[in-house]
Amino acid sequence: MAEQVVTARLPPARRLVPDGRGGMASAAAPADEQGKILPRSQLDRLMRMHGLDQTFRLAPDVQSELSRLAEDFVADLVERGCQLAVMRKATTLRASDLAPYLERTHHIRVPGFSGELRPYRRPNASEVHRERAAAVRHSASAAGAAAGAGGGGGGGGGGGGVGPGAPKGRGGG
């Protein structure tokens, strides 16, 4: 059986954007971007967002390499997603087609599309926390023992209904 490979070639002025239904659609890109996935304006915005001031500049070869890397990543992602879409005999590329490749190859989890449920792992308690918790348990058990031993039988009928002299509860007989 011949392997069918689908590659996504977009015109230079088009790009993929989420369509709101879990799939991808192409949309017109602004003329100054010329179909780049990571244009210079986006690189500048990312640098400012991560605290690099206006005096920090990327060399032109670094900018071109970052743009090329982003374009290669997206092209490879779309190609692998299209292969999975063809396997399920579909003509629409969905996030569920991209999720397995992202998770296996790049260790990127797409929320809602992972096959396994990851249990919540409680963080390990620090030594200080364990000591404080032990002190609280010790003081609570000491207070409980003092309250139970000091009664002597007369008075208010506390005790919580445990033991042979406890009143009968509902349906117990």
From TrEMBL:
This is Transcription initiation factor TFIID subunit12. Residues 147-173 have a biased composition (Gly residues). One of its GO terms (cellular component) is transcription factor TFIID complex. Its main location: nucleus. The lineage of its organism: Eukaryota, Viridiplantae, Chlorophyta, core chlorophytes, Chlorophyceae. Residues 44-108 form the Transcription initiation factor TFIID subunit domain. Keywords: Initiation factor, Nucleus, Protein biosynthesis, Transcription, Transcription regulation. Signal peptide: none annotated. GO terms for biological process: RNA polymerase II preinitiation complex assembly. It comes from Monoraphidium neglectum. One of its GO terms (molecular function) is TBP-class protein binding. Residues 144-173 are annotated as: Disordered.
